[in-house]
Amino acid sequence: MAYSEQVADRVRAAFGERTEVREQKMFGGIAFMLAGNMCIGVLGETLMARVGPEQYGDALAQPFARPMDFTGRSMRGFVYVEPEGFADEADLQAWLARCVRFAESLPPK
User: Fold this and answer.
1) pTM listed for this prediction
2) Distance CA 56, CA 26 (A)
């Protein structure tokens, strides 16, 4: 599946001046990596948010979030966020902050 360049551009802009962000094709979309760890991605028009196991329940409770079931089974620690869930920049920044917090807690690869 392809990914929306418009959504990817919004994510790029949300990262701002961070130089350690790298892009990689993953899950049929594009993933943004921090220190070699997946942080957040775009699949179609949807965000793939890696929030980690401890924040998984809270993330699922957010509007327009659902389990990431790319393989047919839920991937604990990952959620899909429909476009309505990050329609404004504050919502996108909130999702990005969750994902960055988790990615920065992992050892570099």
Assistant:
1) 0.93
2) 21
Phi-psi region of 68 (alpha: psi -120 to 50; beta: other; left: phi over 0): beta
In angstroms, rounded to a whole number, what is the distance separating the alpha carbons of residues 57 and 50?
A: 12
- What are the residue boundaries of the structural domains of the chain, listed by start? 5-84
Please provide residue 3's backbone torsions phi and psi, each rounded to the nearest 5 degrees.
-130, 155
What is the spatial distance between Cα 52 and Cα 77, in angstroms, rounded to a whole number? 4
pLDDT in tens, 18-30: 888 999 998 889 9
- Chain segment 25-52, per-residue pLDDT in tens: 988 899 999 999 999 999 999 999 999 9
DSSP 83: G
Per-residue burial over 5-19, b if 16 or more Cβ lie within 10 Å, else e, is eebbebbeebbeeee
